[in-house]
Amino acid sequence: MSVFLRHILLRWPLTLAPCTEDFDDPLLSWDEPQNAACAALLAPLESLFYHCGKVAHENGYDCDVYLIPVDSLCDHLERLTLPPSDVREAVRVTLQKSLRRWRQNSTEMVRLTVPHRYQTFSTEQQVWGHESEAHPPALCQRARELTAGRCDACGCVHDANALIFRDDNPENHADENLGVSCPVCHFSHRLNTLGANDGVMVYLPELAAADVSLLLRAVILARTQGNARQKEGATQILNWLTGHRKETEAFWGTSHPGEFGQALMQASLLIREDLQQRLRHMVLIVNPTLLNHPALTGPSPETWSDRLKKYHSQN
């Protein structure tokens, strides 16, 4: 499954509109199941999308905004052959009619607005026969190949990135369900297993979860290998991050990550989607003592010195 399709929340409408100031034409808007059909039609053009960012919808959810070249979209739709009974065919016909009008008005780009599907947090689903955390090496290797070893959340590439199942079901080995996560982000995928001392949930609307993950990496590296000044600065940053637990506790009544994990586990699929939306500005700050992983602390300064000498000796 493409990244574009994976991050669409289909409970709300998908819209398309021409990027022309002086052209008064109603935008196209589709609810289920037409919005899923439209997304499937557009997905093959994902490499041509220009992501403009996110906007907040008045109904309380966030939307991704993309620009798509009109000419490329028209050519793509023209080449498609779909059966008349297919929902995508009805959407294609409607879209082509609008595109013809827009092109006559010299429209070069269309604006696609799609509700964003958040899945910042997930839980370890317990399935009978899968009590062990160990996964077949071949499955782990397949996940690394499919993702190029890139963490689903922060984009970090490392050999230590671990296998995750995007729908939390360890029995679903479909390619689109396999991902990897770095040692920092991995804890957000097992929220239900964390205790009160393992971390805190904080409210940080100013920072993306991926940025916080990278910041935590820098903090850990400074605390383990930095000089006195760097260690002091890292501690101040960590205290600033964890200090935002107050907002979480004031609104939710707790900052315990395990309690949020239990809420996600016990919720129905529909309620879980709503909860993920409400948690979109929340971040897990993991206890640094759990993050003493070689992938985070890095080689010692002595190791770097030895590697530098070896490099110079070979050249």
Automatic annotation (TrEMBL):
Domain of life the protein comes from: Bacteria
Region named Disordered: 296-315
Protein name (database record): Uncharacterized protein
Species this protein is from: Buttiauxella noackiae ATCC 51607
